[in-house]
Amino acid sequence: MSGFVVCKKCGTRIKSGRGHCLRCFEPLPDPDLPVRPPLSVSLGLSRNQEMLVGGGTAIAIALLATVIWRTWPVSADDQAQPAAVSMTSAAPRASSAQASAPGAQTAASGETASGQPSGVAAAASDPALEAARADYEQKLTASPKDAALWNQLGDVLERMGRVDEAAVRFERAVGLAPREPEYRLNLARAAQALSQWDRAIDQYREVVRLRPRDAQTLGALGLTLQKKGDDQAAIGEFQTAHRLDPSSPLAALGLATSLEKLGRVDEAEQAFKDYLQITPTPADADRVRGRLAVLARARSQRNPQVK
Predict the structure, then answer these.
(1) What's the gap between Cα 271 and its chain centre?
(2) How far is it, in rounded angstroms, from Cα 165 to Cα 168?
């Protein structure tokens, strides 16, 4: 038996034979048991080699922690919405219809004359939108199958004027959640802005299949058919929309416009009059009254005996 042992906790040298350290009362090791050498000594590592192994282990642990943090699933409650960006609604964007000539269209999709969503010139350079785009793209690297994130990214790109890129994101959202009408409506609007009429029509028809009594979507479908040049099909959609919602200006004016283009003047006049009963804006009402006057003169020229 050796004469002294060293306390592992406080390092005090104590005479062998005692069970506990006199300073910290830590149990003392048995001096007759062999002391296990450090791992580095067992492996025959030098001091430099020991430092290299320790450093490599620390780097590996740090890399592993980074990978775990980046790939950890993001909870739906933690998906922050950029404060400066508001998401699109589930229904098509619609405004007061306008009629100044045969084939006049309503601003149902919120577009400017250039075919781009209103406010694009200012939004394209908006730093808040750029930050939102980067934020959603980063989230999608961790959650590539999150349909809501794809839809939100598409909305931001649309507001930035990058409609073709937005359509790709909306289509991805539709593929992941085909029964969500909002994603299809967003894709339909983007397709309209790109003059991709068939693509927009397909999406509107799918929304109508999911929500058959949605008068607003039926009106948007009729408008898209009208823009494509298929007024006969547009009339059917406008009529259904008008039956579901007689107060819809989009349905009444769209119906009147397509009827006039097909030469069904009497029916077109009645549809224009129905539109005037829906309390349009004064400017729109004046344009429609002007159109009615033109139709009345044309009818009197065809039938001079009719007063």
Answers:
(1) 37
(2) 5
Write the pLDDT tens digit of every residue in 209-224.
999 999 999 999 999 9
Residues 241/214, Cβ–Cβ less than 8 Å:
no
User: How many Å apart are CA 193 and CA 158, to the nearest integer?
Assistant: 10
State pTM to two decimals: 0.60
* Closest by CA position to 99, among listed 270, 295, 304, 283: 283
Which long-range contacts does 37-40 make (Cβ < 8 Å, 24+ apart)? none
- C-alpha distances in angstroms, 36 versus 27, 33, 291? 17, 9, 102
Distance of CA 99 to the CA centre of its chain: 32
Determine which helix (DSSP H) or strand (DSSP E) holds 13, and give its type and residue range: strand 13-15
- Per-domain residue ranges for the chain? 1-30
Distance separating alpha carbons of residues 266 and 39, to the nearest angstrom? 99
Per-residue pLDDT tens digits for 236-255:
999 999 999 999 999 999 99
pLDDT at 44 > cutoff 60: yes
Tokens 């619609």: give the residue: 94
Q: Say whether 103 sits in a helix, a strand or coil.
A: coil
* d(C-alpha 185, C-alpha 187), whole Å: 5
b vs e for 94-103, b when ≥16 Cβ sit within 10 Å of the residue's Cβ? bbbbbbeeee
Residues in the chain: 307
Question: Measuring CA to CA, which residue among 287, 205, 269 is closest to residue 240?
Answer: 205
Predicted local distance difference test score (pLDDT) of residue 172: 97
Q: Which pair of structure tokens corresponds to residue 136? A: 């959603």
Coil/strand/helix, residue 194: coil
Answer yes or no: are the C-beta atoms of 180 and 206 closer than 8 Å: no
Residue 197 predicted with pLDDT over 80: yes
pLDDT score of 109: 40
